[in-house]
Amino acid sequence: MLRTAKIFAIVLSAVALIVLSAPVFAQDYTAGTSNEYLLVMMGQQEDVYVYEPEEKPVEKPRSGRWVIYTVKGDPEISDDDNIPLVRTAADGGPGWRHGFTTIRVDNTSEIFGDTSRGAWVLYPYISDKETGNYVGLTGQYVCGLWYVNASAITARFRMALVRDQVRLEVVLTNYDTKSHYVGLRHCCDVTTDGNIDSITHPYVPGSGVVMAETDYLGSAIPDYFEMYDSISSPKVAVRNTLNEQDATAPDRAAFGSWQNMQGSDWDFTAIPDRAVGDYGWALWWAPALLNPRESRTIITYFGMAAATSSWTSDSGSIGSVPKQDPFCVAVQGPKSLSIDYDSSQSSDTMLQTNPFKIKAYIYNLYTGDTTLKDVQVHLTLPDGLELVDGTATQEITSIPPESEGLPVSWNVKATGKVTGTLDYIVTVSGSPGLQKQLTRSIVVPSTGTTQIQTGWQMISTPFKFEDSRIEEALNLADDTYSASSWNPQTQSYDTVTNIAPGKGYWLKSTIDRPTTRVSTSAKPLSGAESYSIDLYTGWNQFGNPYIYPIPWGRVRVLGTAQDGLLTIDEAVSKNLIRKTIYWWDTAAGEYSMSSDEMENLVPWQGYWIKAKQPCQLIIPAVSEIGATLSGDTTRSRGKASSASSTTKCDGWNLKLVARAGEVEDSTNYIGIDSRASDTYDSADIEEPPSPGDYVSISFPHTDWGANSGNYLSDIRRSTGGTQTWEFNVTCDKKNTDVVLTWPALSGVSKDYTLKMTDVDGSLTRYMRTTSSYKYNSGEGGVRRFKLVAEPRGNNSLIISGLGINTSRANGSATISYNLSADASTDVRIKSTSGRMVRSLAKGRGVTRGINNLTWNYRDETGEAVPAGSYMLEVVATTQEGEVVKTIRPFLVAR
After folding, report:
1. Residue 743: cis peptide before it, omega within 30 degrees of 0
2. Is the pLDDT higher at 163 or at 199?
3. With contact defined as beta carbons under 8 Å apart, do 569 and 555 qualify?
């Protein structure tokens, strides 16, 4: 039974926990609930006194506003216990525009719960304990149902607790007799240290720490963002989950000055050069049409950022809508390791807080009598991380319903020999029906140790050296390697003897070096300042000059002084650079590539980028949460002069692979996409220069003007007609078999016939009936090919008019079929189970047109077949290898 607001008050145990945070805690006109991690409250009615910038009490509304407190927050530390995560009113409860929600109906916006602009259908109330699990999605919650004035739109707002997250669910329903456009906005004044105007630091994956007011729209909106009390030594961390679990992705997200943001409602405009002291965030879900009696559900999450958690899955759900799991898994570990660089120390001891703890928490969300039993928790570590002691698999015997098990803990050490973002996996299984896998990452800086393998690798060194000669800087014997770098001004390779940060090089080693340590004179750049890299028109090799990874999306481009610093997308739109970066996968012996702004520029890895005009890459200062660099470093300021990716289409694409001996090139695609152009567009990816000892597929285009060149992918517009791709296979290996394959051909529309012609070998193969093509490289060099995608029916082989005329009187049957082209044919009679009964023709050469043959109703042994059902099968094969087959059932009567 639902109770009125007057008899609901905040949970008394929660009051005791947070009373130290507020001078007088709000108990009246507030509904609240808590678990051991968080407490949530929603205002019911009446105004309250809040403290404003003029530092005197001002009466402001509380109704419908919300606030979130930590209880123990991150269970591993006490620094974030019992503090508000949303600015409160003077009495510690919710109030005014600190945590509030706006409903937009057509062109009018109203604040949820505002009694002057709407009416409560149900005042905010606390769910009964027996309504569900204490920490589950359907468990204890605060909920209010509000009627938007003059529009017959209702908003049911439920704030539920899921471990250390608050699930904000708003259901908008149209009870009017006419349709309305209805949207939603959440706005929050975040605090991370309990102070009214605390300084928080927003962090966006792929973009780093946000330094000014910032707006994200559409596909640029991250899956989540976080806010910290400190960048270098965070103790309090909160997260908004926007597009994971069962969250509804917003149409817009923004950070800004809370004063600017709370007052602008739907018309907030970010000011990019505005320094912000008091950050807030806002999320918008654009108005969508709601017809009478239609509803719209919007879900988002706000809570702690200490763990990577999962409490939903797609298993058993309808479509891609996640459902609640009966258990929740949370994995905790540090986001980054800091470093005190000292060349006299070993790689692992330079890293601070190393070894470190990884912990896994398992929560039983079942109600009733269901106990989780025999829970196996397994940790899988990548290269670069290792267990200090204990075993990778641990067991929890049982976890009672609506409770958590003691955390499983591993003591883990970073070896310091692998740099970058390292992913580790925690797998949980048990009874009844437990199965979940979570991945969490830790950022490990370079310690001056790396691996150099036999063969080619493209490298870049994030250190400055007193003696920059390769043999001295990297401690390599001069007769065990060779090095070169691409000179974009001469379009050729130059031999390299000296190395510097920001530059990319080819290094070919004659031996494996599992552990290569830089010279003791090497110093990492401090990462406190930006670093510029000159790009010339054409291909350029470059690298990350810092020992911490830098997301590609954080890099800026400087073209002209008038343009100023440009984002990667802005630089691409101004035709300064291509967006795709390439790196050499040494193990696979081929290029990998990405245009994803989340892709990290990893220390020690060399990269290719193509510039369309002279410009500069500006690598920003290191901005990784918890990442600090101390010790023997040098200034970052400087300049370096440059001397798994699948193309997604709304039609189809086809991958082409070339292999010669131990080398392979598998990153080549053709395709059809209605959004593409038959000339150059962003779906066409260029091919960077190759090192020695290689095989390469490329699509040459000399007809694309300023965009002429060799391409790894060539995506065309779907016009319904025939498309022809010319491509080259280049191999510098002599007398080696080169094998071309086309895996995943099933992904190509069956409306197309595909055939490949070896132009230099004068051979054609139909690709649906063969899986590979092989030729010998001879003296090496270029081999020309052509691939044709032709709509079926144009000139493709077709069997039509298949018929059988049976006659008991003549004791035989007449078979006829029509071919669209000359071919050899196999004609077979089979039983309905597929058993061969009689072969009437095998490899029979026939001409285009109608063809006939007879069958005397006898099987292969000459015996008369019994009456019954049979299958007539005709298979036709052209000289080029195109194969088609057709089958027809028929009846033999006696």
Report:
1. no
2. 163
3. no
- What is the 3 state secondary structure string of 372-420? EEEEEEEEECCCCEEECCCCCEEEEEEECCCEECCCEEEEEEECCCCCE
Sign of CA dihedral 796, 841, 856, 849: positive
What is the 3-class SS of 528-559, one letter each residue?
A: CCCEEEEECCEEEEEECCCCCCEEHHHCEEEC
What's at 695, amino acid-wise? V
11-52 tens-digit pLDDT: 323 333 333 333 334 456 789 988 889 999 999 877 887 665
Q: What token pair was written down for 747?
A: 């992904």
Give residue 10's pLDDT band: very low, low, confident or very high (50, 70, 90).
very low
* CB environment 7-18: b (16+ within 10 A), e (fewer): ebbbbeebbebb
- Whether 153 and 172 have beta carbons less than 8 Å apart is answered as yes
Given this model, what pLDDT does residue 465 score? 92
Q: What is the 3-state secondary structure (H, E, C) of 441-461?
A: EEEECCCCEEEECCEEEEECC
The conformational region for residue 561 under phi > 0 = left, psi -120 to 50 = alpha, else beta, is alpha
> Three-state DSSP class for 706?
helix
Question: Which 8-state DSSP code applies to residue 576?
Answer: S
| pLDDT at residue 278, rounded to an integer | 83
Question: What values do phi and psi take at 883, rounded to 5?
Answer: -125, 135
User: Prior bond to 432 cis, omega within 30?
Assistant: yes
Number of other residues whose CB lies within 10 A of the CB of residue 49: 15
pLDDT in tens, 847-877: 888 988 899 999 999 999 998 899 999 998 8
Residue 315: pLDDT band with limits 50, 70, 90:
low
Query: Which ranges constitute the DSSP H helices of 541-606?
Result: 568-573
Among all chains, which residue has been given the structure tokens 């002209």? 560
- Contact 797/884 with Cβ under 8 angstroms? yes
Q: Could you tell me if 743 and 770 are in contact, meaning their C-beta atoms sit under 8 angstroms apart?
A: no
Residue 56 DSSP SS3: coil
Tell me what the pLDDT averaged over the chain comes to: 85
User: What does the pLDDT look like over 205-224, one tens digit per residue?
Assistant: 877 888 888 899 988 899 99
Residue 171's CB is within 10 A of a number of other CB atoms, namely 15
